[in-house]
Amino acid sequence: MRLINTDTLIPGLKLGRSLYNENGQILLKDGVELTERMIQRLMELNIPFVYIQERRTEHIKPARAISEDLQREAIKTIVDTFAHIQKEDKNASIVIEKAAKQINELIRHILKEIHGNKELLSLLADVFIHDNYIFTHSLNVTLYSLAIGIEMKLNQKQIETLGMGAILHDVGKMLVPAKILMKPDKLTAEEFAEMKKHSELGFQLLRNAVTVPLVVAHCAYQHHERLDGTGYPRGIKGEDIHLFGRIIAVADVFDAVTSNRVYRKAMLPHEGLEILYAGSATQFEVHIVEAFRRAVAIYPVGLMVELSDGRIGVVSKQNPGLSDRPVIEILEENAQAVEPYEVNLKDRFDLLIVSCDTAISVAAITG
């Protein structure tokens, strides 16, 4: 399979990985031949990348971060909890109290699967579509935060609490006016000021839920704070920000920049990592960004890349702990197709990935 930017798709390509809605129902099944209307719908749904079937890369299959069943369960838990909070505005803390046990169980199930998966974490293969970005974002941030926590060797209790904080970090958005929350265009300065209140709203909700640890409330409160004090809502600095808040901040920003938004296109994972590196030591803690880099697939399986010696290939495997040194299956040398063979960048530090290609070419259909 090959990873393709959605806006470069052309009719006739076959989908490589099924796409699901928030109820776990298949919207487009793997193997379906894409039509102009289907491609337009994918772009309307803000799906940045999809996997397609291609003869040269048909044996390359990206691993899922978690199983389809667990992903379906997780999205349903988040949707049901958040929707109930929105409906029961005055009793939202009670809703969270009742949901806490279910969320804890969900985190344990996710951790079990992540521990059992020896691949670096990649979410590009796991597309669940929902009208509200917050639901899938909450799950993605949870997966990234747990991966960081594991890499940092936090204990089981810490990781479970971090997971709950990550799932609920944006819960305050359920109390932001819907016309702002669901606005299809970029927010005005006044609307953004209103949106920023979600951190404190979430904190108040969670601190009043007796079954939720207070640190979880601080995850909602602090995930937009920055090391240098330029964040919000309080502008606190350094270690005044709880470790979990600092971890979730990294996961939150990475998922935001690698997701399609109204005002900008999604970045590829290695581009998202550059954003984190640019903010290292000023906005984000260096050792957290490094833990993230070791845990998450920066060059996902199925991505076409060019090496520093001019050879072109596709990422076929990951090297645990070395996200920027994957295994590349070479397909072209000197602008000529060759019999595929592997180059493991773990053993070839003289080679670098110099560019990535998520655009489709005629060769993907014909050859």
Automatic annotation (TrEMBL):
<dbReference type="InterPro" id="IPR037522">
    <property type="entry name" value="HD_GYP_dom"/>
</dbReference>
<dbReference type="Pfam" id="PF13487">
    <property type="entry name" value="HD_5"/>
</dbReference>
<protein>
    <submittedName>
        <fullName>HD-GYP domain-containing protein</fullName>
    </submittedName>
</protein>
<dbReference type="InterPro" id="IPR006674">
    <property type="entry name" value="HD_domain"/>
</dbReference>
<feature type="domain" description="HD-GYP">
    <location>
        <begin position="112"/>
        <end position="309"/>
    </location>
</feature>
<dbReference type="InterPro" id="IPR003607">
    <property type="entry name" value="HD/PDEase_dom"/>
</dbReference>
<dbReference type="InterPro" id="IPR006675">
    <property type="entry name" value="HDIG_dom"/>
</dbReference>
<feature type="domain" description="HD">
    <location>
        <begin position="134"/>
        <end position="257"/>
    </location>
</feature>
